[in-house]
Amino acid sequence: MRPRVRGCRPPGRASSILPVPPLLPVAALVLLALWLSGKAARGGTTVFSAVIVGGSVAALAVLAYVGAPREAARATVARAAPRPRGAPYVTSDACRACHPRQWATWHESFHRTMTQKVGPSARLAPLDRANLEVYGQPVRIVRDGGGWMADLVEPEFVERTARQGIDVRTVADPPRVRRPVVLTTGSHWMQTFWVPGARPGELRNVPVVWVEALDRFLPREAAFLRPPDAEPFHQVWNDNCILCHATAGVPGPTRERTWNTQVAEVGIACEACHGPAEEHVARYRNPLRRLSAHLGGEEDHAVVDPSDLPAARADDVCGQCHSKTWINDVRKFMRQGFAFRPGDRLEDERTLVLPASRPDHPWLAISLEQDPSFVRSFFWPDGTIRVSGRQLNALVESACHREGELSCLSCHVMHGDEPNMQVRPGMDGDGACAECHGDVVAAGTAHTHHPAGGPGSRCMDCHMPYTTFGLLRGLRSHRIDVPTVPAEFRESRPNACTLCHLDRPLAWVRRTLAGTFGLSVPAPTTDPDGRDGAVAGGLRFLYEGDAAQRAVIAYAFGRPEAVRTTGTWFVPHLASLLDDPYAAVRLVAYQSLRAVEGVGLEGVDPVGPPDERRRGIRALVDAWLAGDARRRAEGADAVRLLDAEGRPDAAAVAALLADRDTRPVELKE
Hints:
By secondary structure, the protein is of the alpha+beta class. Among the domains are: 23-77, no CATH class; 482-658, no CATH class. The strands form six sheets. It has a five-stranded antiparallel sheet with strand order 2-7-8-9-10, with helices on one face. Strands 3-4-5-6 form a four-stranded antiparallel sheet. It is globular, with a radius of gyration of 29 Å. It starts with 22 loop residues before the first helix and ends in an 11-residue tail after the last helix. The model is unreliable at 1-5 and 11-26 (pLDDT under 50).
């Protein structure tokens, strides 16, 4: 049985054609019947023939009328979408006949639907529910014949006002436009939408996002971790999303300030990983060559199988998209796209951003001069990537990669039966580590010092903790390392121990890592009020941390492993994050609270009006404490900052909030 696949609705649910008004088909039928009746009365034809011919013609007219809106919508999308690149690319359609299983698994994957043309076959969110307020103005997506139309503030106006330092939210009557929705990005966890820009060939973002886990649309500015006063989004698909959300894209800006954008295929298709296939397809049109290849009589080097490549080159195939890089020659890329083909060295055209191992790279200094927040937007202070979709930057900093042969394909498979995370069978647990570290895995509790089968007993719990953030959730870090507690708390990456033992002070973590595991752990550089040993580490991140730390810890509180380890004492504390200044933090806290049995979230909207949120928080905490006397039975707890009633200790919380890191944080997923 196939696992349940999260993601947007499959074709058909959200893209059905509206009922056709019957007036025109009926009128056509009546007129045709009258004409044929008159002809029959004059002896020009028999009544029976008239009925047959008239009925057939009328049926064709009805079908044409019904199909016209769909054809018109398809033509609109075709005109606005990026142009096909053509040779040497042949698209995935050419692969299906000879590789039906591989084609089928790709077709079921979320790589295929990373970018889609809007139409009946697209996997779409329920667009008729897109009716919300963004930048203080309504945004709607509505049916328009056979397609969809976005009604929104003119995207170019949003960009112009932002560049002039004017907040579009303060403009009383901004210009509005109606534009067809022609492309989507995403379909697994989130989906956003694109409309034609004012310049020919340009695609502009509709500032709303469908979030599958919440079953709702959100303003795009709320779905990403960014300051509440951040400049409104005004993204252009052609020179941004095309890098990772299409196959072999060429932005193609022109001197006339238009776009001649081309792609081998929208979405991530066969040729993204195997290379352009024109030569391969031409060769194997010959049945004798197909037979020879099947019998092992010849090798084909026109396309590449990434699993046959050395680990580093296989990783480069994935790294086309799953990395943060500098483009070595931006002008060339804009005109021609990348020359990279699977099997090539990625860094011949793009340079990995690695603050940990390349802190002196000259481009890093230039990037920081242009944008002082550059590193913080992507990396933790220890140089670990902290945003989703950039796994290669983490993997190459791991000893398993540098000193071994670990590659992306060691754990992931693109043509398996599990489309959610595309994890190779048996590699979603300790089996992923046993091939190289069999003795450590076999040691069991002697190595983990945790009960077998429980939280903390699995390799990934400690060595790949959920310290990457994106898609409104925590994700496993792909920098495989040993847990530690940095000397400096401010802005630090939450450690694997605290992410489970949320109620233990950081000093306890230091002692345990040093005493039980024999690790060298630095002492804290500062320790205000002795908090390192007196306050639960999870609460320090929750109250003192910056927005990125708060988002990661909010996700940790909702993980079943954390609840199993520490209980549910934290609910009143976590509820306070429903009033966090950052919408993304509120949304993560909401999802974590929703995962705790007995928490009532009725009347709490994380993106609703602040006064309503605060009333909802008070009601939530009151109901939680009133619902079970055991939640108040333990009395005051200084480490967990709870008073005798089980409520947050107001004075202790205020002291932590006074030291909160309020520097702006924007994580650029």
